[in-house]
Write the structure tokens for this entry.
Amino acid sequence: MTRITEAIAEPIEIPLRHVFATAQDTAARRVSRLVRVRLELDNGGHGVGECVPVQYVTGETQASALEVVAAALPALAGQSVDRPEQSLRAAEASVADRLGGKPMSEVAPSARAAIEMALWDALCQDRRIHAWTLFGGARSEVVTDVTIPMTDTASDMACQYAEHGFRCFKVKLGRGDPSHDLAVLRTIRNAVPEARFRLDANQAFSADDALEFLDQARRLGFNIECFEQPVARDHLDALDRVAQRSSAPVFADEAVRTPADVYEVVSRTRAHGINVKLMKAGIRGALAEASIARASGRKVMIGCMLETRRGIGWALALAAGTGMFDLYDLDSHMLLAQEDDTPEDAWDSVAFAQEGPILRVSQR
């Protein structure tokens, strides 16, 4: 029985190709700040996980996530790789007092996700199975969009991505002036006439402003696939109103961090779908959230923060393996100026190949 001998956490910063800004994070972000977890095994193998804390989404920072992870990791020493759920519970219990008795899934979900990912990676590495197989192997490839942040170079970015086959753009809105947001969509469409849009307001609008924006966008003929989190996360009545009257499907993102949140959204609103992210819910939580949404007849998107190929690989394995997702926003590795997570082994439990917008599971 293979056991964990050592667990290590470290902070990592990776430069971005372009400045990244959203309506809730308007600072000129130039790096992705990660916490990387590495589990050493007694057979010489290892498991690796990561998280990218985003404070306005989960309340975590890189520093706070690193502190929680570092405090939890000693509990993993001696644990069997065959029991990732048991090991995760041990790690959670070890920091319960530090977190005021609240579960990690509520107050440190990204930190928890990094540990969970590393534990499952260790299991896959030890058994020499692909994570995609673990989740069912339903599909071997998916098609992702690509994100255009709040920037003055949106059309240039769209042209660059279009050269690689992208036609679906997730555009960050909320610059304060709806006419400017519309102008950005126009410049992208002028550059890429067949562009399809997934709009992400990151809670920037009121219900009235969101509906007015959508009405103007419809009259201008933009091809809008969905409108993500138009209003504040806790304004479910406003979300319901927008979803009821919207000309495009409305998805909840920041409003759903836990399975309980998904139940609230599907019970109290007519939102057409939800955005599931490993950084919000972890692996088990993401599966639970997707199951609740699908049982209520809603669509499910799988998204990301600013993860590397490793984090995106796990999201891809989950999405393609289960076949439970309808929309894919798995592009953050393309936003990084460099990658530092090239697998040390020839075999990688979450490897994938990319051809433009197509992400394919790659078993080596």
